[in-house]
Amino acid sequence: MSLVIDPPIPGPHQGARLVTRGSAPGQARLGVVLCHGRGATAEDILALAAELEDPGAFWVAPQAVGQTWYPSSFMAPLRDNEPYLSSALALVAALVGALERAGIPAERQLLLGFSQGGCLALESAGRSARRYGGVVGLAAGLIGPAGRSWNFTGTLAGTPVFLGCSDRDPHIPRDRVEESARELARIGGEVDLRIYPDLGHTVNRDELDRVQGLLDRIAGA
Predict the structure, then answer these.
(1) What is the pLDDT of residue 187?
(2) Per-domain boundaries in the chain
(3) In this protein, which residues make up the domain named Phospholipase/carboxylesterase/thioesterase (predicted)?
(4) N or C, where is the chain less crowded by C-beta within 10 Å?
């Protein structure tokens, strides 16, 4: 099972290794793009699939160069994360396009990421707003410094969006998660925000159950 990124994306993530599993793209009922966290691997995030019941999905997880999508904090000035951030965003957009060409339209795709990868998934959805099957940010928020004004011009058109995070995550300020939920709702996302007491920087069973619900919803659409 393979996807072709054509034309190649610009920047450091050009030629990123893709790890896949599940149904062949031409036979899958939905596609899932998975973005790993800083210092992790595509295989790490793809392990989430083993925790879920697969409703006939094609799963694809790209590997970031140097195991990081961008070098600085997700709340650093945007220029501090270039050209890595723009390259990562281009890669996610290219994967969405490749899945479409393989017969899985965006409305049957789920964009999901954890931590740094979750920030990437949310930012990708905002900058390339359209009707997706779903968007999930686990321990994540939109990218940019405090006080950033997002100027997303598209619409998510009712896309289900799930945000899950601890109330005291050491890497993701609660205020940014809540701000991200408001912004994604502003551009038409059907946002479900869950803040978990004392969870830490990890994923819990309730979050996985909500992801499962999204997968089932997309597969049954």
Answers:
(1) 98
(2) 18-220
(3) 31-214
(4) C
pLDDT in tens, 106-116: 999 999 999 99
Annotate the chain with DSSP letters as a single string: ------SPPPSTTTT--EEEEES-TTT-SEEEEEEPPTT--HHHHHGGGGGS--SSEEEEEEPPGGG-SSSS-TTS-GGGGTTHHHHHHHHHHHHHHHHHHTT--GGGEEEEEETHHHHHHHHHHHHT-S--SEEEEES----S-TT------S--TT-EEEEEEETT-SSS-HHHHHHHHHHHHHTT-EEEEEEETT--SS--HHHHHHHHHHHHHHHH-
